[in-house]
Amino acid sequence: MENMISDFFLKNWQRKAVALVTAIIAWIFVNHSIIETKVIPSVPIRVINLPANKTVLGLLPNGVLSKRITLTLSGTKDVISELEPGDIVVVIDASTIDRDEWILQITKKNLVSLNPSIDLVHHITDVKHTEYILKLSPLVTDKVPITILPPTGTPPSNYEFLDIWPQRLMQTISGPEEAVKSLKTKGLEISFDLNQISKKDLDAIKPPHGNILDDEITFLIPASWKQIGIPFHNNVEEFNDPEAEFLRIDFLRKEFHSIDKAIPIRVFYPLVSIDKLNPNTLFLVPNDHVQNEKGIFVLKTPLFLHDVSQLFVDIIRENLEIAIVAATKEERSSLEWSVEIINPHSLEDAYVAFLFSNTTQGKNAVSYSKSREKMLRKRFREYLQKLTLYVSPEKKLHLDNSMDGNSIKVKVD
Questions:
Q1: What is the pLDDT of residue 169?
Q2: Whole-prediction pTM value?
Q3: How far apart are the first and last CA of the chain?
Q4: Domain closes at, from 209, 236, 251
Q5: Is residue 402 part of a domain?
Q6: Residue 195 shares a structural domain with residue 229
Q7: Distances (CA, A) of 134 to 68, 175, 234, 371
Q8: Which listed residue, of 64, 187, 299, 409, carries a Cα 20 to 30 Å from 146's Cα?
Q9: Residues 269 and 244 in one domain
Protein backbone atom coordinates (compact mmCIF):
# COMPACT_ATOMS: atom_id res chain seq x y z
CA MET A 1 0.00 0.00 0.00
CA GLU A 2 2.78 2.39 0.88
CA ASN A 3 4.48 1.67 -2.41
CA MET A 4 1.30 2.44 -4.33
CA ILE A 5 0.87 5.81 -2.61
CA SER A 6 4.51 6.65 -3.13
CA ASP A 7 4.33 5.74 -6.83
CA PHE A 8 1.16 7.87 -7.24
CA PHE A 9 2.82 11.05 -6.02
CA LEU A 10 6.40 10.51 -7.07
CA LYS A 11 6.18 8.72 -10.37
CA ASN A 12 6.23 11.26 -13.19
CA TRP A 13 5.80 14.00 -10.63
CA GLN A 14 7.04 16.69 -13.03
CA ARG A 15 4.20 16.03 -15.47
CA LYS A 16 1.67 15.87 -12.64
CA ALA A 17 2.85 19.21 -11.22
CA VAL A 18 2.56 20.84 -14.65
CA ALA A 19 -0.96 19.44 -15.03
CA LEU A 20 -1.99 20.78 -11.59
CA VAL A 21 -0.62 24.27 -12.28
CA THR A 22 -2.32 24.26 -15.68
CA ALA A 23 -5.63 23.30 -14.05
CA ILE A 24 -5.35 26.08 -11.45
CA ILE A 25 -4.54 28.67 -14.14
CA ALA A 26 -7.46 27.46 -16.21
CA TRP A 27 -9.81 27.70 -13.20
CA ILE A 28 -8.64 31.23 -12.42
CA PHE A 29 -9.02 32.27 -16.04
CA VAL A 30 -12.50 30.76 -16.34
CA ASN A 31 -13.58 32.24 -12.99
CA HIS A 32 -12.39 35.70 -14.08
CA SER A 33 -14.04 35.28 -17.45
CA ILE A 34 -17.55 34.64 -16.07
CA ILE A 35 -19.62 37.82 -16.43
CA GLU A 36 -22.31 38.49 -13.85
CA THR A 37 -24.84 41.33 -13.51
CA LYS A 38 -26.08 42.88 -10.29
CA VAL A 39 -28.47 45.72 -9.40
CA ILE A 40 -27.10 48.11 -6.78
CA PRO A 41 -29.82 50.41 -5.36
CA SER A 42 -29.48 53.80 -3.67
CA VAL A 43 -26.00 54.70 -4.88
CA PRO A 44 -24.88 58.20 -3.75
CA ILE A 45 -23.78 60.79 -6.30
CA ARG A 46 -20.99 63.23 -5.43
CA VAL A 47 -20.52 66.39 -7.50
CA ILE A 48 -17.07 67.96 -7.74
CA ASN A 49 -15.56 71.02 -9.42
CA LEU A 50 -18.71 73.11 -9.37
CA PRO A 51 -18.24 76.72 -10.58
CA ALA A 52 -18.16 79.14 -7.64
CA ASN A 53 -21.39 80.83 -8.72
CA LYS A 54 -23.32 77.63 -9.40
CA THR A 55 -24.89 74.81 -7.43
CA VAL A 56 -27.09 71.81 -8.11
CA LEU A 57 -30.65 71.39 -6.93
CA GLY A 58 -30.62 68.80 -4.16
CA LEU A 59 -26.92 69.21 -3.37
CA LEU A 60 -26.18 68.67 0.32
CA PRO A 61 -23.43 70.54 2.20
CA ASN A 62 -21.18 67.45 1.98
CA GLY A 63 -21.24 67.58 -1.84
CA VAL A 64 -23.56 64.59 -2.21
CA LEU A 65 -26.96 64.85 -3.91
CA SER A 66 -30.03 64.16 -1.79
CA LYS A 67 -31.51 61.94 -4.52
CA ARG A 68 -29.69 58.67 -5.17
CA ILE A 69 -29.55 56.43 -8.22
CA THR A 70 -29.93 52.71 -9.00
CA LEU A 71 -27.10 51.13 -11.02
CA THR A 72 -27.05 47.86 -12.94
CA LEU A 73 -23.43 46.69 -13.05
CA SER A 74 -21.93 43.92 -15.17
CA GLY A 75 -18.46 42.53 -14.57
CA THR A 76 -16.40 39.62 -13.39
CA LYS A 77 -18.22 37.29 -11.07
CA ASP A 78 -15.76 37.47 -8.20
CA VAL A 79 -16.05 41.29 -7.97
CA ILE A 80 -19.77 41.64 -8.76
CA SER A 81 -20.70 39.04 -6.15
CA GLU A 82 -18.83 41.01 -3.48
CA LEU A 83 -20.46 44.38 -4.25
CA GLU A 84 -22.96 45.66 -1.70
CA PRO A 85 -24.85 48.95 -1.40
CA GLY A 86 -22.47 51.37 0.26
CA ASP A 87 -19.41 50.03 -1.54
CA ILE A 88 -19.49 52.56 -4.38
CA VAL A 89 -20.19 56.21 -5.10
CA VAL A 90 -20.74 57.98 -8.42
CA VAL A 91 -18.50 61.01 -8.89
CA ILE A 92 -19.54 63.65 -11.44
CA ASP A 93 -17.12 66.35 -12.57
CA ALA A 94 -19.32 69.45 -12.95
CA SER A 95 -16.65 71.23 -15.00
CA THR A 96 -17.68 69.03 -17.94
CA ILE A 97 -21.35 70.09 -17.75
CA ASP A 98 -22.14 72.67 -20.44
CA ARG A 99 -25.88 73.26 -19.85
CA ASP A 100 -28.25 73.93 -16.91
CA GLU A 101 -30.07 70.62 -17.37
CA TRP A 102 -27.79 67.68 -18.01
CA ILE A 103 -28.72 64.00 -18.31
CA LEU A 104 -26.24 61.83 -16.43
CA GLN A 105 -24.19 59.45 -18.52
CA ILE A 106 -22.40 57.23 -16.04
CA THR A 107 -19.55 54.96 -17.07
CA LYS A 108 -17.16 52.94 -14.98
CA LYS A 109 -14.86 55.95 -14.95
CA ASN A 110 -17.42 57.68 -12.74
CA LEU A 111 -17.42 54.86 -10.20
CA VAL A 112 -15.30 55.11 -7.07
CA SER A 113 -14.91 52.15 -4.77
CA LEU A 114 -15.39 52.78 -1.06
CA ASN A 115 -14.07 49.30 -0.37
CA PRO A 116 -10.25 49.14 -0.83
CA SER A 117 -10.41 45.42 -1.70
CA ILE A 118 -12.66 45.97 -4.74
CA ASP A 119 -11.09 47.06 -8.05
CA LEU A 120 -13.93 48.50 -10.13
CA VAL A 121 -11.94 49.89 -13.06
CA HIS A 122 -10.51 46.52 -14.15
CA HIS A 123 -13.52 44.35 -13.34
CA ILE A 124 -16.62 46.32 -14.38
CA THR A 125 -17.56 45.88 -18.02
CA ASP A 126 -20.86 47.76 -18.29
CA VAL A 127 -22.90 50.33 -16.35
CA LYS A 128 -26.61 50.95 -16.82
CA HIS A 129 -28.77 53.27 -14.75
CA THR A 130 -32.14 54.93 -14.44
CA GLU A 131 -32.51 58.37 -15.98
CA TYR A 132 -31.17 61.12 -13.80
CA ILE A 133 -31.17 64.82 -14.69
CA LEU A 134 -28.80 67.27 -13.02
CA LYS A 135 -30.17 70.79 -12.77
CA LEU A 136 -27.64 73.56 -12.28
CA SER A 137 -28.82 76.75 -10.62
CA PRO A 138 -27.24 80.07 -9.64
CA LEU A 139 -25.84 79.95 -6.10
CA VAL A 140 -27.41 82.75 -4.03
CA THR A 141 -27.24 83.85 -0.39
CA ASP A 142 -30.23 85.49 1.29
CA LYS A 143 -31.94 85.95 4.65
CA VAL A 144 -34.88 83.68 5.47
CA PRO A 145 -37.26 84.58 8.33
CA ILE A 146 -37.59 82.22 11.28
CA THR A 147 -40.80 82.59 13.28
CA ILE A 148 -40.45 81.55 16.93
CA LEU A 149 -43.81 79.96 17.73
CA PRO A 150 -45.31 79.81 21.24
CA PRO A 151 -43.67 76.91 23.06
CA THR A 152 -45.31 73.53 23.53
CA GLY A 153 -45.49 71.57 26.76
CA THR A 154 -46.18 72.67 30.31
CA PRO A 155 -44.04 74.95 32.48
CA PRO A 156 -42.73 73.62 35.81
CA SER A 157 -45.06 73.77 38.82
CA ASN A 158 -45.48 77.21 40.39
CA TYR A 159 -44.35 78.88 37.15
CA GLU A 160 -46.36 80.44 34.33
CA PHE A 161 -45.18 81.04 30.79
CA LEU A 162 -45.17 84.77 29.97
CA ASP A 163 -43.60 85.22 26.55
CA ILE A 164 -40.66 84.44 24.32
CA TRP A 165 -38.33 86.95 22.66
CA PRO A 166 -37.16 87.58 19.97
CA GLN A 167 -40.18 86.17 18.17
CA ARG A 168 -38.53 86.46 14.77
CA LEU A 169 -34.99 85.83 13.54
CA MET A 170 -33.34 86.04 10.12
CA GLN A 171 -31.28 83.03 8.98
CA THR A 172 -28.64 83.61 6.32
CA ILE A 173 -28.83 80.69 3.87
CA SER A 174 -26.94 79.81 0.68
CA GLY A 175 -28.32 77.50 -1.96
CA PRO A 176 -30.01 77.16 -5.36
CA GLU A 177 -31.79 80.35 -6.35
CA GLU A 178 -35.20 78.67 -6.77
CA ALA A 179 -35.03 76.88 -3.42
CA VAL A 180 -33.85 79.94 -1.48
CA LYS A 181 -36.56 82.16 -3.00
CA SER A 182 -39.25 79.60 -2.19
CA LEU A 183 -38.03 79.20 1.38
CA LYS A 184 -37.83 82.97 1.84
CA THR A 185 -41.50 83.24 0.84
CA LYS A 186 -42.64 80.42 3.12
CA GLY A 187 -40.27 81.14 5.98
CA LEU A 188 -39.18 78.73 8.70
CA GLU A 189 -40.85 77.97 12.02
CA ILE A 190 -39.62 76.55 15.30
CA SER A 191 -41.05 76.05 18.77
CA PHE A 192 -39.42 74.97 22.02
CA ASP A 193 -40.70 72.40 24.51
CA LEU A 194 -41.32 73.71 28.03
CA ASN A 195 -41.18 70.12 29.29
CA GLN A 196 -37.41 70.27 28.76
CA ILE A 197 -37.13 73.02 31.40
CA SER A 198 -37.14 71.79 34.99
CA LYS A 199 -38.26 73.58 38.14
CA LYS A 200 -34.68 73.25 39.35
CA ASP A 201 -33.49 75.17 36.28
CA LEU A 202 -35.83 78.08 37.00
CA ASP A 203 -35.33 78.06 40.78
CA ALA A 204 -31.59 78.49 40.19
CA ILE A 205 -32.04 81.70 38.14
CA LYS A 206 -31.13 84.77 40.15
CA PRO A 207 -32.27 88.31 39.32
CA PRO A 208 -29.74 90.83 37.96
CA HIS A 209 -27.45 92.31 40.60
CA GLY A 210 -29.32 94.70 42.86
CA ASN A 211 -32.75 93.82 41.48
CA ILE A 212 -35.13 92.67 44.22
CA LEU A 213 -37.91 91.89 41.72
CA ASP A 214 -37.22 88.21 41.16
CA ASP A 215 -40.59 86.76 40.19
CA GLU A 216 -40.32 87.48 36.45
CA ILE A 217 -37.72 84.86 35.48
CA THR A 218 -35.64 84.96 32.29
CA PHE A 219 -34.54 81.58 30.92
CA LEU A 220 -31.88 81.96 28.23
CA ILE A 221 -32.29 79.40 25.45
CA PRO A 222 -29.30 76.96 25.43
CA ALA A 223 -27.07 76.93 22.35
CA SER A 224 -28.01 73.30 21.66
CA TRP A 225 -31.63 74.40 21.07
CA LYS A 226 -30.73 77.10 18.56
CA GLN A 227 -30.87 74.94 15.45
CA ILE A 228 -33.23 74.91 12.49
CA GLY A 229 -33.81 72.36 9.73
CA ILE A 230 -33.12 73.58 6.18
CA PRO A 231 -35.30 71.49 3.82
CA PHE A 232 -33.11 71.54 0.71
CA HIS A 233 -29.95 70.99 2.78
CA ASN A 234 -31.52 67.95 4.44
CA ASN A 235 -29.86 68.87 7.74
CA VAL A 236 -30.02 71.32 10.63
CA GLU A 237 -28.02 74.51 10.96
CA GLU A 238 -27.25 76.70 13.94
CA PHE A 239 -29.00 80.05 14.13
CA ASN A 240 -26.70 82.68 12.60
CA ASP A 241 -28.77 85.80 13.35
CA PRO A 242 -26.84 87.86 15.98
CA GLU A 243 -30.15 88.43 17.81
CA ALA A 244 -30.28 84.69 18.54
CA GLU A 245 -27.79 85.35 21.35
CA PHE A 246 -30.60 86.99 23.33
CA LEU A 247 -33.24 84.31 22.69
CA ARG A 248 -35.14 83.90 25.96
CA ILE A 249 -38.31 82.59 27.57
CA ASP A 250 -39.80 84.62 30.42
CA PHE A 251 -41.71 82.94 33.23
CA LEU A 252 -43.70 84.27 36.17
CA ARG A 253 -42.99 82.69 39.51
CA LYS A 254 -46.51 82.59 40.94
CA GLU A 255 -46.71 84.20 44.38
CA PHE A 256 -49.19 86.22 46.43
CA HIS A 257 -48.31 89.91 46.66
CA SER A 258 -49.68 92.18 49.36
CA ILE A 259 -51.15 95.45 48.11
CA ASP A 260 -50.10 96.88 51.47
CA LYS A 261 -52.40 99.90 51.41
CA ALA A 262 -56.05 100.85 51.76
CA ILE A 263 -57.98 100.99 48.48
CA PRO A 264 -60.35 103.86 47.68
CA ILE A 265 -63.96 102.76 47.25
CA ARG A 266 -66.61 104.88 45.55
CA VAL A 267 -70.08 104.71 44.07
CA PHE A 268 -70.62 104.94 40.32
CA TYR A 269 -73.90 106.64 39.40
CA PRO A 270 -75.17 105.77 35.89
CA LEU A 271 -76.34 108.91 34.05
CA VAL A 272 -79.48 107.15 32.85
CA SER A 273 -80.82 107.11 36.43
CA ILE A 274 -79.12 110.23 37.79
CA ASP A 275 -82.45 111.78 38.88
CA LYS A 276 -83.14 108.90 41.26
CA LEU A 277 -79.61 107.75 42.04
CA ASN A 278 -77.04 110.40 42.93
CA PRO A 279 -74.77 111.28 45.87
CA ASN A 280 -77.72 112.91 47.65
CA THR A 281 -80.07 109.93 47.39
CA LEU A 282 -77.64 106.99 47.76
CA PHE A 283 -74.28 107.08 49.46
CA LEU A 284 -71.66 105.03 51.29
CA VAL A 285 -71.56 104.87 55.07
CA PRO A 286 -68.51 103.89 57.13
CA ASN A 287 -68.31 100.62 59.08
CA ASP A 288 -65.66 98.15 60.25
CA HIS A 289 -64.46 97.59 56.68
CA VAL A 290 -64.99 100.98 55.07
CA GLN A 291 -63.64 104.19 56.61
CA ASN A 292 -63.94 107.83 55.66
CA GLU A 293 -60.52 109.49 55.43
CA LYS A 294 -60.82 113.22 54.73
CA GLY A 295 -63.92 112.75 52.61
CA ILE A 296 -62.62 109.68 50.73
CA PHE A 297 -63.94 106.24 51.57
CA VAL A 298 -61.32 103.47 51.70
CA LEU A 299 -61.47 99.71 52.13
CA LYS A 300 -59.14 98.89 55.03
CA THR A 301 -59.17 95.10 54.64
CA PRO A 302 -55.67 93.71 53.81
CA LEU A 303 -55.73 92.53 50.20
CA PHE A 304 -53.49 90.51 47.88
CA LEU A 305 -52.94 89.95 44.15
CA HIS A 306 -52.00 86.70 42.43
CA ASP A 307 -50.89 85.65 38.91
CA VAL A 308 -49.17 89.00 38.43
CA SER A 309 -45.64 90.21 39.14
CA GLN A 310 -44.40 92.28 42.08
CA LEU A 311 -43.39 95.02 39.64
CA PHE A 312 -46.94 95.18 38.31
CA VAL A 313 -48.30 95.45 41.87
CA ASP A 314 -45.84 98.21 42.76
CA ILE A 315 -46.78 100.23 39.68
CA ILE A 316 -50.58 99.99 39.94
CA ARG A 317 -50.85 100.09 43.75
CA GLU A 318 -51.59 103.83 43.98
CA ASN A 319 -54.07 103.70 41.08
CA LEU A 320 -56.36 100.96 42.35
CA GLU A 321 -59.94 101.62 43.36
CA ILE A 322 -63.20 99.74 43.88
CA ALA A 323 -66.32 101.04 42.16
CA ILE A 324 -69.83 100.08 43.35
CA VAL A 325 -72.55 100.48 40.71
CA ALA A 326 -75.59 102.33 42.07
CA ALA A 327 -78.98 100.69 41.51
CA THR A 328 -82.40 100.60 43.13
CA LYS A 329 -83.57 97.81 45.41
CA GLU A 330 -86.01 96.77 42.73
CA GLU A 331 -83.13 96.26 40.30
CA ARG A 332 -80.71 94.50 42.64
CA SER A 333 -80.67 93.27 46.19
CA SER A 334 -76.86 93.45 46.27
CA LEU A 335 -75.00 96.10 44.28
CA GLU A 336 -72.44 95.00 41.71
CA TRP A 337 -68.82 96.11 42.03
CA SER A 338 -65.55 95.97 40.12
CA VAL A 339 -61.86 96.70 40.52
CA GLU A 340 -60.74 99.70 38.48
CA ILE A 341 -57.31 100.93 37.38
CA ILE A 342 -56.94 104.67 36.98
CA ASN A 343 -54.86 105.87 34.00
CA PRO A 344 -53.77 102.40 32.81
CA HIS A 345 -51.93 103.76 29.74
CA SER A 346 -49.54 105.78 31.89
CA LEU A 347 -48.97 102.79 34.16
CA GLU A 348 -48.25 100.63 31.13
CA ASP A 349 -45.62 103.12 29.99
CA ALA A 350 -44.03 103.05 33.44
CA TYR A 351 -43.93 99.24 33.46
CA VAL A 352 -42.26 99.06 30.03
CA ALA A 353 -39.81 101.86 30.84
CA PHE A 354 -38.76 100.18 34.10
CA LEU A 355 -38.05 96.85 32.41
CA PHE A 356 -35.98 98.50 29.67
CA SER A 357 -34.01 100.62 32.11
CA ASN A 358 -33.20 97.56 34.24
CA THR A 359 -32.13 95.31 31.36
CA THR A 360 -28.82 93.60 32.04
CA GLN A 361 -25.99 95.19 30.08
CA GLY A 362 -23.01 93.40 28.57
CA LYS A 363 -22.93 90.04 26.87
CA ASN A 364 -26.58 89.22 27.60
CA ALA A 365 -27.92 92.69 26.90
CA VAL A 366 -31.27 92.91 25.18
CA SER A 367 -31.34 95.80 22.75
CA TYR A 368 -34.30 98.11 22.62
CA SER A 369 -36.71 97.22 19.86
CA LYS A 370 -40.29 97.87 18.88
CA SER A 371 -41.05 94.15 18.92
CA ARG A 372 -39.90 93.77 22.53
CA GLU A 373 -41.82 96.87 23.58
CA LYS A 374 -44.95 95.43 21.97
CA MET A 375 -44.42 92.16 23.84
CA LEU A 376 -44.04 93.89 27.23
CA ARG A 377 -47.13 96.00 26.66
CA LYS A 378 -49.07 92.84 25.86
CA ARG A 379 -47.78 91.28 29.09
CA PHE A 380 -48.95 94.28 31.14
CA ARG A 381 -52.43 94.15 29.57
CA GLU A 382 -52.69 90.44 30.29
CA TYR A 383 -51.88 91.20 33.92
CA LEU A 384 -54.71 93.75 33.89
CA GLN A 385 -57.13 91.15 32.57
CA LYS A 386 -56.16 88.71 35.34
CA LEU A 387 -56.48 91.34 38.09
CA THR A 388 -58.28 89.68 41.02
CA LEU A 389 -58.27 90.73 44.66
CA TYR A 390 -57.77 88.15 47.42
CA VAL A 391 -58.27 88.38 51.17
CA SER A 392 -56.09 85.27 51.66
CA PRO A 393 -54.27 82.78 49.40
CA GLU A 394 -57.34 80.54 49.58
CA LYS A 395 -60.09 83.14 49.22
CA LYS A 396 -61.01 85.85 46.69
CA LEU A 397 -62.45 89.15 47.85
CA HIS A 398 -66.24 89.19 47.88
CA LEU A 399 -68.23 92.33 48.75
CA ASP A 400 -71.84 92.18 49.86
CA ASN A 401 -73.10 95.69 49.12
CA SER A 402 -76.51 96.06 50.69
CA MET A 403 -78.82 99.12 50.81
CA ASP A 404 -80.46 100.47 53.94
CA GLY A 405 -82.60 103.43 53.01
CA ASN A 406 -80.31 105.95 51.37
CA SER A 407 -77.12 104.32 52.59
CA ILE A 408 -74.90 101.63 51.10
CA LYS A 409 -73.29 99.25 53.55
CA VAL A 410 -70.22 97.29 52.42
CA LYS A 411 -69.52 93.94 54.00
CA VAL A 412 -66.45 91.81 53.26
CA ASP A 413 -67.37 88.10 53.07
A1: 94
A2: 0.76
A3: 123
A4: 251
A5: yes
A6: yes
A7: 12, 15, 18, 44
A8: 64
A9: no
